[in-house]
Structure formats: C-alpha cells, structure tokens
Protein: Cytochrome P450 Cyp6-like protein
Organism: Frankliniella occidentalis
Amino acid sequence: SVALGSDCNTVKGGNDDFLNMSRELFRRNFIFLLRFFLISVHPVFVKLLPFKRIFKDMTEFFLKLMSDTVNYREKNKVERNDFVQIMMQLREEDRNRSTLDRASHVELNNDTMAAQAFLFFVAGLDSVANTIGFALHELAMNHALQRRAVAEIQENIRKHGSLTYDAVRDMELIGRIVRESLRKYSPVGILTRQPS
C-alpha cells in the first residue's frame, strides 16, 4: 500500500497481508451480516456483542503495521510523502502544542493512527475496485481507446523499466480514462450538484 508505507507486491501474486485482510473484511456469512446489522441499528450492541473479536486479526495487523512503520521511520529518519507521514507530522505538532490547547483533543498515538489507517484502507477498497471496473468496462466498449491505452502503458513501462509510481503518473490517457469513469459512475451514493 503506497499510502500506508508498505511494499505489498500484490500485483506479483505474493501472499499479501493487505489482500488477505481485504478478502476477510468483505467475506460475507450470515452471522457476520447479522452482527453488522445489529450494530448498525443501535450502538448499544457494540458493547453486547463480541465485535472486537470479529476484527481481531485485522486489529492486530493494523496495530503491528503502524507500530513497525512508525518505529522504523523514527529510528532510520525516513520520510515519505504518504498518509503515515502526515499522521506522524500531526502527532509531532500535537506534542509541541501548549497544554492549554490540549483540553479538547484526541491524542494521536499508534492505536489512533492504526484506526485511521484501517478506515483509510476500508474506505478505499470498494470505491477503487468499482472505479477500476467501470474504467475497464469503458475500455471494453471502445476498442480504439483500448489500443491507445495499451500502447501508452507499454511505452511507459519501457521508459521506466517496470510498472512504477512514476510510470503510472506519466500515463496521461489512463488518468483521463479514470477521471471520466469517476465522472460517469461516481463512487459517491448521492451527488448534489449546484448550477453555476
């Protein structure tokens, strides 16, 4: 995951923890759906049902991921332009804040950062998968555009040596295809528009 500072290699087909967690998160069975429904109906069910046990593996995974990532970066003075770095900077700013300002804030510790990382991960799964699916549908319907997209991908992989962040960033046509898919098939359930 680029945003969480972890090298997954999911594309290469390894045994990736992020892939396994996403499969586990969206694995549906009756008991899971019943618990989730009851918790959605009324928050009191969170205390009555063993909700933490449902996500025990995911909780441990994200706590370990965040702790390991933050400790490694602090120990080795590593900075990256990602979600974890933003949270680390906010935590540092929070530490430097005066005690008067601290009355109504939440401490940004590793547990809180892990919770934010989990929410970031979950929020991105469905919307990204749907957007990719719609973009692929558009490409399947337009063969000329599909050929141009394949040519652009091959050219950028040749230019950069492999499929890297820079190679993807240089794919202007692919970016336009994704933006058009987002315009036509918004991942947001209700989109309110105002005339200009």
User: Anything to note?
Assistant: The radius of gyration is 21 Å. The CA atoms of residues 176 and 189 lie 22 Å apart. The mean pLDDT is 78. The chain is about 70% helix and 0% strand.
